[in-house]
Design a protein that fits this description.
Helix content is about 50%, strand content about 0%. It is mostly helical. The two termini are about 15 Å apart.
Length: about 140
């Protein structure tokens, strides 16, 4: 079972603090959830892997972001990695901070290929198992 795209879009919009809020960010987070967890179907990485939550963040990434950004975003200071599995606010904000930490501007919310390439470069990483084509397919399946 996956999320309703309209309700999830509205929730992301309401959860993001003003400094992290934009249409480009909302669309990229929706697309990331579509790719990483089949839009909320999997909240633990398939095959008992280390990633958690709708955006499938790994513990090492989470810890790095807490260390680097808890002064800029004090709300995250006492958050725990395990909470990403069930707390959509924490999962959403941490995923957005991950993208915030990446160089350059976010891709346009209207350019799915640019979003897919950005996700592959900065979220999945060039050595990650996901592909740009798979990202686009999942975006079309769950979000478009």
């Amino acid at each position: 079972m996956s999320y309703d795209k309209h309700q999830f879009r509205s929730l992301i919009s309401r959860l993001l603090p003003p400094t992290l809020h934009s249409e480009n960010a909302i669309e990229l987070l929706l697309a990331t959830a579509a790719q990483e967890s089949a839009f909320g179907t999997y909240l633990r990485q398939f095959g008992n892997g280390p990633a958690r939550g709708v955006y499938q963040m790994e513990g090492a990434t989470f810890g790095d972001l807490i260390n680097r950004f808890s002064n800029k975003f004090p709300i995250i200071k006492d958050w725990k990695f395990e909470e990403l599995e069930w707390d959509l606010q924490k999962a959403t904000i941490m995923s957005r901070i991950k993208y915030y930490s990446c160089p350059g501007a976010l891709p346009s919310s209207e350019d799915i290929m640019a979003m897919a390439r950005y996700w592959k470069q900065w979220y999945n990483t060039p050595r990650g198992a996901g592909t740009v084509d798979e990202f686009v397919e999942n975006y079309m399946r769950y979000v478009a």
